[in-house]
């Protein structure tokens, strides 16, 4: 089509409340029932065809009811991964020559389908497979993924319209080519939206993708793939391989056409991927783009002027929503003694009153289970160690994996601000609190700024504007997303572009133009309309422009 279209102006998707008696609640409950008993094959999708991976089987269960198997997936083998790469590369010429409008329409349609008929399916799958409450599934699997799909189209259009200046007689253009090769998207268990965004953002920019979701998110990923197909994604553009990723690392990272990695997950995994790419660097066609958003040890710093109600709400929601399994979750808090002495008992009893259980059976439950046995064992060990540590006061916290992987909200009060609990990411509902003398605010600020290797999210809770300004300035490099008088979680696409620095990742801000820039490789084109020509005899002066009078004799006059 010979036109430069206006893409639809994006707006954040409305968040449904799922109030008792509402139509959306009835639809969700119905879908939960159907999917809970479905026990489906969680296949790979290569060239639009679904088939099981050739490796070891993996049962995908409900974390809050570990005996309930939602489906079975298989590890992809080296041969499976090779096939996914070959398919992607074969699909590349047609996909990249499709116009942006045609590509964008697929993802806009996916957003529309998810906003309507697919909403209950993806929310139910996320609740069942990742143990999210209805509210947490809604803000993730529905709203955030819809926002990613819609806002990315608008950001891509903005990027494409960014063009260089031209001078008289010259037209300069910038062509935003996709990367040459394939993009490998490796996604985490905790956000259905992130899992959907990582392959689709690269594909929107004209790239072909091999996508490997986390096995513990495979249930919702399976339906995300079906949604994209219904939206019209051509076969081969995004190829999904399943399993733990061993073969993906071995084959894709050694492939000469690896053009980029779009990763979200732990710092250790990203460092492994980066190291492997580094080792193989001479063998690629180009320099693979490495985009990785990783772990955090996110803080809440309270000033003596803080409103205690704001502080306790930020801590309860920031630390315990989705069982603390958000990369943004508050896992360390610094609270002045004057506030803590009045707040502690109430805060602990509020934490103890949070309901924990099967989020799909009772939609009012505040927390579900942690994702799997490995996560449960890690949290159990951390709590047991804390109990044996004389420097740690376990104010509340317990665990039970008899039916599901349940870890109750855990609050540790610790005097030593350099203790492991302020440094290590547990990625669960464990909050460490350091109580300081009110006069030590500045010293605390200096210490907590660099005690952990991460720099993802953090909050300052204060009424005193000088304290807010000082914390904002001195914590400038300690968080990629910084909050004033709010919890450190819940970034919204288009409002708080998300990502952190230091060990927390490359900070390419998911759902923003900065991220999309990583998936293009710009070509600059200069066209000179009337080029200068050197005519003999050469007198040593090189014409600077082609604006000499035309030779009328040559033209026949
Ligand atoms: N910064 C962010 O935006 C952000 C967002 C979500 C999660 N996270 C982080 O993600 C982590 C939790 O997610 P997770 O447990 O799924 O992380 P993880 O690193 O264990 O797994 C992430 C993905 O990498 C895959 N993987 C693991 N080893 C691999 C290998 N050798 N080769 C190829 N693939 C491999 C996994 O199967 C999964 O798909 C936390 O550290 C959290 O902070 C960060
Ligand atoms: N973007 C989400 C966190 C994603 C990581 O898990 C938030 O802001 O809470």
Description:
It contains 15 helices and 23 strands. It is an alpha/beta fold and 557 residues long. 37% of the residues lie in helices and 20% in strands. The protein folds into 2 domains: 24-294 and 510-521, Aldehyde Dehydrogenase, Chain A, domain 1 (3-Layer(aba) Sandwich), CATH 3.40.605; 298-496, Aldehyde Dehydrogenase, Chain A, domain 2 (3-Layer(aba) Sandwich), CATH 3.40.309. The strands form 7 sheets. It has a 7-stranded mixed beta sheet, with helices on both faces. The chain binds nicotinamide-adenine-dinucleotide and 5-oxo-L-norvaline. Nicotinamide-adenine-dinucleotide binds next to helix 8 and helix 9. Pathway: Amino-acid degradation; L-proline degradation into L-glutamate; L-glutamate from L-proline: step 2/2.
């Amino acid at each position: 089509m010979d036109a430069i279209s206006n893409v639809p102006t994006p707006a954040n998707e409305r968040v449904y409340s799922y109030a008792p008696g509402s139509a959306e609640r009835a639809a969700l409950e119905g879908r939960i029932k159907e999917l809970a008993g479905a026990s489906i094959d969680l296949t790979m999708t290569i060239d639009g065809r679904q088939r099981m991976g050739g490796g070891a089987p993996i049962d995908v269960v409900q974390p809050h009811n570990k005996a309930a198997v939602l489906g079975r997936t298989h590890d992809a083998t080296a041969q499976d991964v090779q096939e996914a790469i070959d398919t992607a590369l074969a699909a590349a010429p047609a996909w990249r020559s499709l116009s942006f409008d045609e590509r964008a329409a697929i993802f806009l349609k996916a957003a529309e389908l998810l906003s309507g008929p697919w909403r209950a399916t993806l929310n139910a799958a996320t609740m069942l497979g990742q143990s999210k409450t209805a509210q947490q599934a809604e803000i993730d699997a529905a709203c955030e993924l819809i926002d990613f799909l819609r806002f990315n189209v608008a950001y891509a259009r903005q990027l494409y319209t960014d063009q260089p200046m031209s001078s008289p007689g010259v037209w300069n253009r910038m062509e935003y080519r996709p990367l040459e090769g394939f993009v490998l998207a490796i996604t985490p268990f905790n956000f259905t939206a992130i899992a959907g965004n990582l392959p689709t953002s690269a594909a929107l920019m004209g790239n072909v993708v091999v996508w490997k979701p986390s096995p513990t998110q495979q249930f919702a990923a399976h339906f995300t793939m079906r949604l994209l197909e219904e939206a019209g994604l051509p076969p081969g553009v995004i190829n999904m391989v399943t399993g733990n990723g061993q073969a993906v690392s071995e084959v894709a990272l050694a492939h000469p056409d690896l053009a980029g990695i779009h990763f979200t997950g732990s710092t250790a995994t990203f460092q492994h991927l980066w190291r492997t790419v580094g080792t193989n660097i001479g063998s690629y066609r180009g320099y693979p783009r490495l985009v990785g958003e990783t772990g955090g040890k996110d803080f809440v710093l309270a000033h003596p002027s803080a409103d205690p109600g704001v502080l306790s709400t930020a801590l309860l929601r920031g630390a315990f929503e989705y069982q603390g399994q958000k990369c943004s979750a508050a896992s360390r808090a610094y609270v002045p003694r004057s506030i803590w002495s009045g707040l502690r008992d109430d805060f602990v009893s509020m934490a103890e009153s949070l309901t924990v259980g099967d989020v799909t059976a009772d939609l009012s439950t505040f927390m579900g289970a942690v994702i799997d046995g490995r996560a449960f064992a890690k949290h159990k060990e951390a709590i047991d160690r804390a109990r044996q540590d004389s420097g740690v006061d376990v104010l509340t916290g317990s665990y039970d994996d008899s039916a599901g992987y349940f870890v109750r909200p855990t609050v540790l009060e610790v005097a030593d601000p350099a203790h492991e609990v302020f440094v290590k990411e547990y990625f669960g509902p464990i909050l460490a609190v350091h109580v300081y003398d009110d006069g030590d605010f500045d010293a605390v600020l200096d210490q907590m700024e660099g005690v952990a290797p991460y720099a993802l999210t953090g909050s300052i809770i204060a009424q005193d504007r000088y304290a807010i300004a000082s914390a904002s300035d001195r914590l400038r490099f300690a968080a990629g997303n910084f909050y004033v008088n709010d919890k450190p979680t819940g970034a919204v696409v288009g409002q708080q572009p998300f990502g952190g620095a230091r060990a927390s990742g490359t900070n390419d801000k998911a759902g923003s133009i900065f991220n999309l820039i990583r998936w293009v490789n710009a070509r600059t084109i200069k066209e000179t309309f009337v080029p200068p020509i050197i005519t003999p005899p050469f007198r040593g002066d090189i014409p600077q422009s082609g604006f000499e009078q035309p030779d009328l004799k040559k033209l026949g006059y």
